[in-house]
Batch of 2 targets.
Target 1
Amino acid sequence: MYSLIRPLLFKLSPETAHSFTLNGLNLLYRLKLAQLFFGKSIQFNPCKVMGLDFPNRIGLAAGLDKNGEYVDCLSTLGFGFIEVGTVTPRPQKGNPTPRLFRLPTQRALINRMGFNNQGVNKLLLNLQQTKFKGILGINLGKNFNTSIDHAIDDYFLGLQKVYPFADYVTINISSPNTPGLRQLQQGEQLDLMLNVLKQTQQNLTTQYDKYVPLVIKIAPDLTDFQLEEISKQLLNYQIDGVIATNTTLSRDQVQGLAHADEAGGLSGAPLFKQSTLIVKKLHDLLQGKVPIIAAGGIMNAADAQAKLDAGASLVQVYTGLIYQGPFLVKEINRALG
């Protein structure tokens, strides 16, 4: 069915198609037709990761539902967990349009969205209206006009606000679309970040009598040395999980294609090899002490299995949904189950 619809969606601009698809899915949900289209949700291969019970290993990556507006309808696709955001303390429009580009022959996207979102207060208001009872992750970023020296303030505020509503919280310090953000993955800045956030997590655990795992999302463009240093810090601060990876600045796999020279992060099939290599290296460095959530280029069940074989405990999809359609989730679950 999606193979018939996709050519029509691809005649729309990427952002328009994104909005149209989510609103259409939401309409099906509200009309109680989602089960008719997507079938009954079934638990495949439940697992425990970060102390949380996941009904299956397939999650939705952050970015698709930035404001937590579509959690209920997205849950009908069979996800074991859903991650919303990236959300910032204050609302922001993001980068000027156009800022999202398709590379269809490579099943890829380039985006420079820039953390466009309605702010953390609006996200939490939306989440309070959902019926979703599954595993929910909330992905935090910093506002574009918060300096890198004060970035910790935005993450500190975000963590405090979302803590009661999240099953886990992701700290996004790897988007290539907020100037300077990736500096937070390195050296003293990373050390300070993890120190403050871990202490905040401990304080909030006491306050709410609830332990919410902290997850760090890293880039695929790290050197081996950088990866080793990050791994040491993750272990030192007993961070609960790591997402590998965000989008890439590399264009090695798409040179010469239309839009390949657009600024922003590349996602989709061309990212698969590099992001999977990062998972494998992380697995070796962390020795199973920090669970890995793999994201990047998962377009089918074999890709998901390869991430798990490389050492991931969970996987996330996003661009694969754009090219393969909403049935991708259950297709992967059936294969893995």
Note: DSSP finds twelve helices and 13 strands in the chain.
Target 2
Amino acid sequence: MSKIILRTALLGLVAVSLGACGAADRLANVGRVPTLSAVDDPTAQPGYKPVSLPMPHPEPASFQANSLWRSGSRAFFKDQRAKQVGDLVTVRVRVTDKANIANTTKRARTNGEDFGVENAFGFENKSDKFLPDGAVPGSLFKTDSNSSSSGTGSVTRSEQLVTNVAAIVTQVLPNGNLVVEGKQEIRVNFEIRELIVAGVIRPEDIESDNTIDSTKIAQARIAYGGRGQISDVQQPRYGQQVMDILLPF
């Protein structure tokens, strides 16, 4: 019990210290608009890891005499679409999800056990010597059990996000596919809205105007949120979040 109390106290101290750090940052920015993040190299961010996926065998390009076409080439004419590290591509984010799920579960079970010895070579009449008074040999053990459960659940979800964001090519995979990552920040009064898009695309899916639909991004990671006064008010305090995790009821 003492160990649990000690751990709870330590977690409380950590939560208070984190809350103090966050409060200090907020107090330092009282009356000021939230600052935008600096434009930097996505690959230099802490935790960034190059994408590693199974790759097919490379197809060597072979040139043929008196021919403008060469085997293994991706395109006949050169265009300005993104194809190498540092190029930009516009991602059209189109997220429209709707889901209606309803589940109903019912279960019932009845068990009964009856055990007795009515005839045992005449010894059943002598059972009163080792059984309590009033015991009947024909009904020595009897159990009954009934259990039932029912559950009903439903989920209704509707999400829609339509916007555009420019992404930068951060890596070219051995098979020619491109790893892209883009981040957009928009400040409205004291609130910053963030949109992050990342994933793997094929150069063939990039349209002539250097745009690509978000549905054609493999391993897509799309995040839309915000930070500022409104988001801060909507979030519970650090202490409440810690208590929600620790309390078992």
Note: The helical segments are 2-28, 229-234, 238-246.
